[in-house]
Every structure is written in C-alpha cells, then in structure tokens.
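Q: Got a minute? One more chain.
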Amino acid sequence: MDLLGFHPIDIILIVCYLALITYFGKRSSRKIKSQEDFFLAGRGVGKLFQFFLNMSTITDAGQAVNTAAASFAKGLGGVWILLAPLFSGPYYWFMSGWFRRVRLVTMAELFDERFKSQSLAFIYACVGIWLSVINIGIANKISLRTFQAMTLKPEAEYTAQEHDKVAMFAEYRELEAQYKAKELPQEKRERFDQLTSMFKKGQITPWISYTKAQWFYAIYILFVGAYVIMGGLKAAVINNVIQGMLILVFSIMMIPIGLYHLGGWSGFSERLPDHMLYLFGSGLNEFTLASIIAYLLANYVIGITGHQGNMSNYGSAKDESTARIGCIGGNYTKRILTIMWAMSGLLAYALYHESISDPDTAWGVMSNNLLGVGLRGIMISGILAANMSTLAGVSVYLSALFVRNLYKPFVQNRSERHYITASRVSIGAILLLSILVAVKSAGIINILKMLPSLNVIFGAPVLLLFFWKRLTLKAVYAQVITCVLLFGILPGSLSLLESVKQSPWLTVQTNEQTITRDVSATQADVDAGHAAEVGQKINKELIVQPTAIFFDKVARSNPDDSDSPMEGIGRIHPELVIAKIIGLNLRDKTPSQLLTIRYLIDALLPFIIMVPISLITTNKGLEDNIARFYVKMKTKVNADPEKDKAELEKSYANPTRFDHLKLLPKTNWEFCKWTKKDTIGFLVCLILSGVIVTGFWLIIQTL
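A: Always. Here it is, folded:
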C-alpha cells in the first residue's frame, strides 16, 4: 500500500495540511487593499499573532535539521551555530523596538530616510534579496535531504553503480574509525585518502533514495508559493498559528521515541562518546567558547541588525511593546526548540552513527526508521509547516524590497493593485531562483558558517546609523562596496577558476594534531588493557584531522590518483587570506581558532572602514533630514495611527523635543537613557538566557 515509502494515511494528513493553508491564503487575499496590507498586515498584528509570526518566521525545519546535523557531526559543541542567539535576547529587546519606531516598510528605506540616497537603498535591496535567496535555498536543500532520507530505496532495487557507492561508503567509515583511533595500517592509508576525497566530493553514499531533486523542488515550491502569493503577510500571520503548533509537535516527538529504542536514558548515555558532550567543543570541532563569542558578535549582534526581515517582523506589530514581546517570546521559544533539536541529533548518533555519512540527513534517517503510520505524515507536515512559515515571511519582505526599491523607482504613479500584482509575480520569481541556489550550494553547515561575513555588510552600517549622527554616506558606500567585493563576489567567482582551486598556496591544510582528553573507558578500552572497567576515567589521545584553511574543503582533484593536485571545494574564506597576509601562522591553528579569526575579522572590518572615513567626510545638506530621523526614533509609537501621526508632526516641528533623553548630551551619539520598561525587559531576558543555559547544562550532566 506504500507510495515511495509513505502509507496512504500519511499522504492524507499531508494533503489535508496543504489544503488548509491554501484555503487561508485564498481567504486572506480578499482583505488585501494596499501595500501595507500585503507587506505588513496593516500594521495591526497583536501580541499572540506577533509571537507566532516571530517564532515561525525565524524557525524553519532547516534549522532543526541543521542543529541535529551539527550535534550529530560535532557533538553538543556544534549546537552553538543556532543556540548562540540565546545570549542576544537582551539586545533583541531593544532592537525590535527600534524597527517599529522607524515606521518604514522595507529595510532599504532606512538609507533613503537617513541619507536621502535611493541608490544606496537600491544596492541594499539587491544584496538583501541575494542573501535571502541563499537562505531560502538552504531551506529548500534541507527539505530535499530530509524527504530523501524518508523515501529510501530497498537494497534489492539498487543498480550495480548504486551498490558500489554504498559499499565504498561502508569501507570509508571503517577506515575512518581506525584512523581516528590511531589504528589505521600504513598500507591502507592511500585507500583511506582516496575514499575521503570521494566522500568530500559526494561520490559515495550510505543509502539511495527514490526522491529525485527536480521533481521534489517543482512540487514543493508550487505549494510553498501558493498561499503567500495570494494573501501576503496577512495569510502568513494566520497560517503561522497552525504552523507554529506543528513546529512544536515535530520538534518534540522524536525524543521519547528515540529514547524508547535506545532502552531509556541509560542506554542513550552508554552509546555517546565523551567528546560529543562537551558543551563548548572538545578540540575535535570548531565551536569553543572563543569562536561562539566571535560568531555571536558577527552574526547575532551586528549581522542581525541589518537583516532584510526586521521591518516586516517588527514593523507589522501594532506598537513597539507588541513588537518587543513578540520578538522575545518567539526567540526564546526557538532556543528551547534548538536544544530539543540538538538532543535529536545525539539520539541519531547513538542509533545510526555507523550508517549515516551525511549529517544533513540524520533527521530524515531517524524519522524514516522510528516513526510509524500517521506519525510520518505529521512529521512531514511539521517540516513543511516550518519551512513554509519561514519562506512565507521571507518571500513577502523580499517582494517588498523588489517592488518598493527596485521596481517602483522606475515604474512610478501606478495603482496599489498594480504594485501588489508585481509583488506576487516577484515572489514566484524569487522562489524559483532559490531552487537554483539549492542545486548549486555546498554543504548546509558550510553555508551557515559563511553567512556572518555576508550579513555584516549592511548590519554594521544599520547599527551605526541608528546611533551615530556622524556616520556619512561616503563611508557607508566605501564599506559596502569593499565588503561586497571581498565577502560576496570574489570568494565565489575566484573559486570557479581552475588555477585558484588548485593553487598550492590556497589548498594548504592545518597540521594533523593530537589532543589528550579525560574520557570514560569503553568496553574496547577494557579489552585493550587501557582500563579496569567500563566508565573508568582514562587519559586518551584523539586525532584532529587536517582541515582546509582557505576553502570549505580540500581533496584530491582525482581521488583515484594519489599524486593528483589538491583541489579546493566550496567557497574561499577571504578573512583567512587577510589573516595570512598580515602574518598569522594558520597551519598550527585548530578549527575553532580559524573560525574565531574569521568572525572577528567579519565583525571589525566594516567599522575599521566606516569610522575613519566618516571622521574626514561630511553629510553636507542633510542636517535637517538627520535631525528629523533621530527625533522620530525618540517618538514612541501609538497604536492608533491618527494619534501616532499627530505625535510625529509635533516631533518634526521641534527636532530637539527629546534631547533631554540623550544619554550623552552635546555629542554625536544618540543613545537614550533607559526607561523602567527597558530595564525590566533587559533583566528578564538575562534571567531567561541563564535559566535555559543552566537547564541545558543540567541535562548534559545526566548523560
């Protein structure tokens, strides 16, 4: 009765979900009268809907699968790629209010408002659409990987070529285990290197799936686009309640089932090596305390401030208190879910680490093996819900960027209906473009590690323009052009050149390193005479394999020829090229140290460019405009649009109206004194961050 591994009941559940969200999209389309209705849901979203909007928009199945993949591949140290924003909660409390107070529709309009520069707004829209399409592409790729892992072809149906791929993968895993344990015979070293290169190039695999990428992407995008094209953000807000519930269900359901199959908590603990439980990394992965702090600064303080969806996520709230509460509620709920996803990744490792080659598929393999009839349908519906809620929000604010900042300046004085139609067409085009990104992209975790260097391009100037009156248009242009070239264009384009991919200078790797750890002895350690009993603490050496420095990966250009030149795979890391040029010795660095260097350069370089240039240039002729901008930012939002408009007119008539609120009077810094609400919110966020981390730590201590 199965169809590609799915029972008819599962298919019925999936179809019912798709029909329901399409219905709400159609119903919402009748209420769309203006661009603000389509892009911002009329700026009337209340606290409950704002909570679900924020949680669902920032929480997609890709992040669940990414976190599970990271913890599967690197242990709990890998979870920080998505858990790091936990410590940004106090910053988000303030940031969400800023974007409601600025009262704009798109992030690009900030540059028009502050500098009267439509051309810089145009550049932001282009870069913003490009970055967000990368994010949508990641979500598409994750959905494909997960679906493929849940539609496995039986071994009896393999072709001869497919049999070879699976057999060579099994051999690779066996040799890899021997290598890490320092037990690999020298005569097998060449074969291990060959299989390692084949693995990095995706030429061997542990399983074969029925699902073909082209058909999956076509059907998936069709359904994803349907309801949001019809109803815009209004449809997204309504559907996010349904989708938010499904996200909670699919995030939780795997844990009790996985524990049951492992024989409970004790069985789970016995199957995990100690290095998987180091919260800040074990030396075997990239996420130590230093790299986490650098990543947090680059991506979740600086980068997030320029995020393309900020105006949509927070500007749709009826007032700034609603924006703040919705933001904090959604963000902290996501961090709790992140811990659940990390535990699911550890469960997958405990159950299937010998058969899973690609960590990106860990979630799908576990779902395929553990879930019965009906539960698989709920899981797929939850994954679709999580991705659709994110794609809905992303595609709406991207269409706003396109129509208002790229299209409207050239096609002016048209009706609201015309611009809404253009928005719907642009959503379809953006979703199609995201498929191309998914097909061409490298490993998902590598893409996530790349994003901070791209997000800071506009995150840094947005952060400065909110608070530093001295920031100039020339400085922003210099920084944006430099960083777009350095972080955005050159790393991808240069890596296409054969001479660059095989450059001896760029294909170097770190030196092989041996680290020593106190670990709990396994039965194998007892059998080898290294311990008296299982669980005894012993001192053990572990090998840290050489890792690529300037590329995502490095492998032999011809895996069958051990003398063939090394070849870079993926993107070049310009930050590490800069580090090498200024004299840092990178070959002796650990993976975490390399990542720390990358993110620190990402975080600091934009300011190193902008601050000096601003100090030697001026914003001539913009004095009145800048004064209006900052007095608006000090004017509290009133939920009644007419009263809010009246307060703004008072502020514009007297730009010094709120100067007494400045923390640093008679300076170019526009920081304001904290209110009681600011202080309470900040402290509550600190407490929530501490409680969640402490709870996570206590869970780990029981393993």
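A: The mean pLDDT is 81.
Q: Perfect, thanks.
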